[in-house]
Amino acid sequence: MARRFLPLVLCVVAACGAKTPLDPGDSFDAGRPILPRDASVDLMEVDAAVCGGPCDDGNFCNGREICTVEGCVNLGIPACDDGDECTVDTCDPVGDICMNVRVDRDEDGDGLTGCGGDCDDGNPGVFPGAAEICDMVDQDCDGAFDEGTLSECRDCRRGCTIVDIPSETGGTWDNPDSELSGTEVGPDGSLVLGATRDENNFAWIANTRFGSVTKLDLQTGAQLGEYDSVLLGPGTNPPMPGEECDTEAGFGNCPSRTAVDLRGSVFVANRAFEDQATVTKIAGRIEDCIDRNGNGVIDTSSDLNADGLISRGGGEYLGQMDECLLWTVDVGGLGGIARGLAIDSDGFVWVGLFAAETAVKLHPDDGRVVRTVRLARRFERFQPYGAASASDGMVYFTEVATGRIVGVDSSSDLVTVRAEVPSLDCQGSYGIAIDDEDRVWLAGFICEAAYRYDPATDDWLEVSLPDAGGTRGIAADDRGFIYVASSHDFIRLGGPAGITLGPPVTRMTRFRAADGSDVTTFGTNADPLPGQGSVGIGLDDDRRVWLVNQDSGTATRLDPATGATREFPVGDTPYTYSDFTGYALRTFTMPSGFYRTVIEAPCPSGVTFERLEWDADVPPNTRLEVRMRAAPTRAALGAATWVGTFVSSPSDLTMAPGPVPIGNFLELELVLVSEDERTSPTVRDLSIQYLCPL
């Protein structure tokens, strides 16, 4: 590499002693004196004559010296910088040359540019080939950081783990360690709502004078359990059962309406005519009950001798000791009379208070009051008698004396619908139901008729039901039929004004919801059905009709397709005509299904469950809901409290509606909900992140 020096304009002494200027274009090499191109001067003689001896000390690196008229002059240190920041530039005094050596650091301190692959010249621990450590820094300069050192959670915490469902909990959604109900695995392996739902196959029927609720198996008709309709406690101490309930002047609990949720749990409205009305929740599944006495098992009513009946002795009926009684709450004030009962499309419980003329919205988890809505208005009373929920979020109440209905929008808790049956001959209604088009149906009670109100068009349809008798409960199925229960024959005494109830019967009339056609009556006087006094009606998953017989204390099952019937004992004065099987909620109000599994998280001190995330398609009118419970052991999960509901992805499990407790086992329930009966969420996978402190 050529050596360069600073240009100078100098002169040397010529033989004649004259000064000759040096042209900047002249040069010297290796430190030789600068002379004009045509000069022929003995440099040693010049140095000796002018400077008294040689000026050049022979050290290239400290610059060359020459003799001038001013004496010895240093021409400057050689410029060895080659302009390349990726070389170290030095001068070699031995070889009299500039050295330019390439290095992997640029040493400019900016921490950005690099030489030879070094990506941070300000950090001596960062260079190509360095070992990666978990600190969010790229030690080995390969463009990535912390590779090989991160936890599954993509952070530097040891013990942070992500469990992917279903791949790490059995490989597929439908594995032996998981439970599916109303859901199925689609062709692509995703979880979707099933075309045929595996629903809760039991009915909850209130026994008014027993002050209890009987749970019936809808396949066999056997009694699965009997439960008090209240859980007594320091904050809620309503009266116990009593025969006064059938007179509406006593002090019993007087349970009547029941509403079944998506898990098969039941909410019971206790009228308590002259006392404090209440609502009670009873678990339908053993895993939802509470081990209050801590003995490691759930103590609850069951048919121990398998005779299909629950006896009051022999440990089959536990009363207040039953651990499937979850809670009882007061609603309204004294004498409010809880009657209409329904579950809305978001899972909240609505109870109509007959005497208070209000509707109370309760939270399904603990029964706390969310809202109280006044149904009456100035100069117009409204005493709610029955209730039913639509898929669009509306909750409708009916008034028995007038045939009026009031609709409450559950999203705003405001009354948005008021309508009245336009009948001159008959004003009054009893049961209420919603069909698959969110139309409201009323049973006429003192009229041999049923009425349909369409909120979308504000139109009414009257369906005549000749010889039906006194119509009470009413229900709809998913194939376009309406079913009406009748409890008594009519005795006609001189026209509509003189109609009175005749002897009790068990009778069902069916017709088409579209236009009231194809009216068919089951249980005529010539061909009676078993039982007496059918006040309530409901359907099971096989579309068989169940009639609740108040006078005979039984339930009658009727298959409309074959006409086959069976009668099963229930209790004293059963009086239920609401959605006591949950069929309406599952089919119309909130079509859904669930997936449930248990995750084991080994850790000596228990793990903190941190994050929930899913990969799913959630179309309009559908949603996903997740709840969880954690415990130190698998066996203890049954007594643990459910936490949730989590409705968004991702969800922080350490925040509300959590936190999820620390534990080694996590039970997770994923609910798929469709509000339009046609669209389903699609869940590809779901993950739980947890931390084991190490």
Number of helices: 2
Mean pLDDT: 84
| Large-scale geometry | elongated
Task: Note the gap between the termini.
Answer: 61 Å
Task: Count the domains.
Answer: 5
CATH class descriptor name of the largest domain: Mainly Beta
The biggest sheet amounts to: 5 strands, antiparallel
**Relevant CATH superfamily of the largest domain:** TolB, C-terminal domain
Binned, the helix content reads under 10%
Low-confidence stretches: 1-41
CATH architecture of the largest domain: 6 Propeller
Give the oligomer, counting copies of the same chain as homo and different chains as hetero: single chain
The count of DSSP E runs of length 2 or more, i.e. the number of strands, is 44
Into which percentage range does the β-strand content fall? 35-45%
Structural class: mainly beta
What would you report as the Rg, rounded to the nearest angstrom?
A: 45 Å
Strand order of the largest sheet: 8-38-43-40-41
Per the CATH scheme, the topology name of the largest domain is Neuraminidase
